[in-house]
Amino acid sequence: MSVNTKLAIQETYGERFQHCWGCGPKNEQGMHMKSYPSEDGESCIVRVMPDQMYTGGVPANLFGGMIAVIFDCHGTASAAWFNHRAKGQELNQDTVIGRFITARLEIDYKSPTPMNEEITVTSQLEELTEKKAIINMTMEVNGKVTAKARMIAVAVKDNM
């Protein structure tokens, strides 16, 4: 799948929303995850190489809480993108994208997610209304599905 890596969705968040630990570009201690729409705009992709400190109770595997963080940040970015796209808009340097936050996140852990390997999460839109987006996500490592998630994200005002 071809990915448009020109501008990450998180780079278009308004100033107030750029400090998330997982994906905020202005959080110095954060992970700085970057989600990108695919070239056709039908999905969004994030690639993550987690630091060794996030190993879980099973050695050499990512702990479940970090998996939830990755789904959380990527899912809300994806919701923002799908809403933006539905309005016929594109991402550019002047974009201040509408924000979404997580209302519900369901995760199915399929198999351990190994450390020291790139994780890819792909999201697709299930449903979009004026106030919410339902996002389905798949986490893979080397082509193997390790987790799936379904998120309900809700739109927020910039003054939240």
TrEMBL record:
Source taxon at top rank: Bacteria
A Pfam family it matches: 4HBT_2
Protein's name in the database: Thioesterase superfamily protein
